[in-house]
Fold:
Amino acid sequence: MNLSVSALSKIAALASVSIVVGVAAVGSISVSLTNQNKVIMGVQAHGTSLAGMSREEARQFFTGVANNRLNRKAAVLSYKDRSFTINPADIKLQGNIDKAVNEAYNIGRDGSAAQNIIMQMYYAMFGRSVTMDASFDEQLLSDKLLQIKQSLDTPPVNATAMLQADGTIKKTPAVTGLTLDIQPLITAMTPELQQMNLTIKLPLEPAEQPPFIQDADLAAMDTVLSCYTTSFYPGDRGDNIGLAADKLEGALIKPGASLSFNTLVGKRTREAGYKNAGVIVNGEPAVDVGGGVCQVSSTLYNAILLAGLTPVERTGHFIPSSYVPAGRDATVADDLIDFVFRNPLPHPVYLTVGNTGTRLTVFVLGTKADLKGQTISLITEGAALKPSLYRLWRQNGEIIDKEYLHTDSYNPPKPQA
Structure:
């Protein structure tokens, strides 16, 4: 029988299709038999083929991977020369073994029978990878990071100056405050821990809080610019004086800055520890909480005048005070009367206080060169009830300036009944 070329071509094409179908059928049967109740061909995890493993064998494999990784540190966090370690046990970090086993075993088995055969053949040729992830206790991680935060967090501490018995000034350095925010750490660590990417290495970057008084503020401080002393009797009034004077200790006034007595000392209340003691109200002797505090502001007033500082806000009493010369007092009252002064010098000045229980001394520390070799004294002129206060500036013993400060008008003390 003679066949045409066209007929021969059709027969060849049909034969080819038959062969492909036959091979595919044989291949599918082979793959199906090979994969029966086993992880299918082509599946791998963490660089190892899982093909042919039973569920239990796959579980043993993933358990081994988890144990190997969990033997490492979960994270090492560092700040300068300090380091902090978080171990897997600290946060109950564990591999999700059952999840990984189920994922590996179910590959090529989650469709219809025909779909499964096609996908199994596809994975046998092109492969499929499974990665075991992990879970951990988020609260334990937060608690661990809070412990690290507590060990790092530091409040800022001012540099200080202390007047020694020999007249020298001892300085202690400032401490920069630190505050660690743990939320960015949790955000950065969580995906790494979930993927079992250990060990995580993270630098800690706490926010820095510089103190108000830094080492540079005290660097040029080399002398006592002035001091002034007043006397008092022990008792409730003396206790009030001590409370207010303690608030002056360590106050720094930078060049061009001002200091408010009321702001620095705070309100004189029983809650703050102040007691009832003698005061002057509208020229009349009385008893009120915080009596005696005006002696502190007046002592400070004289000290800052002798240091070359500038009074900005100052009020005299209604009658002369017993603890300072007339015209050299500075009264204060909560929310009513303040004493404020400014530092016009090139360098900061620093207050320190001496209190023996009967004598209060306010020292103003500063830089000797700021006064340019000049010395300062105070004089009053005029009547006792209307004194005018002047500040005398001397250079090499000669008066070079007589600075008028103010004139006070006092009421005469009322006679005792």
Remarks:
- Residues 5-34 form the longest helix (30 residues).
- The CA atoms of residues 262 and 335 lie 8 Å apart.
- Confidence is low (pLDDT under 50) at residues 11-28.
